[in-house]
């Protein structure tokens, strides 16, 4: 029961803060991509290579995710906004 509550609280906190980002900030996109990449790399590395594979996967996935976040950052729209 405690584990389910902890997971639910973490999910609610993640969803609550997900909308508080700037999609045009390279730093925020790098941080988000790095976290997602590190988590995915750790899961995949742990499943394939055990404990040391999880660490290698987390490092590699974090680096690739951060680089991808920076590369895919869209340009800020020109003008004052979309509506006039």
Automatic annotation (TrEMBL):
Alphabetical keyword list: Signal
Signal peptide positions on this chain: 1-18
PROSITE patterns reported in the protein's UniProt record: PROKAR_LIPOPROTEIN
Entry protein name: Uncharacterized protein
């Amino acid at each position: 029961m405690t584990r389910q509550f902890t997971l639910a609280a973490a999910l609610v906190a993640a969803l609550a803060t997900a909308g508080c980002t700037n999609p045009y900030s390279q730093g925020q996109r790098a941080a988000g991509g790095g976290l997602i990449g590190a988590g995915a790399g750790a899961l995949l590395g742990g499943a394939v290579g055990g404990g040391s594979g999880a660490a290698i996967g987390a490092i590699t996935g974090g680096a690739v995710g951060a680089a991808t976040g920076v590369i895919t950052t869209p340009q800020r729209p020109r003008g004052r906004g979309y509506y006039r």
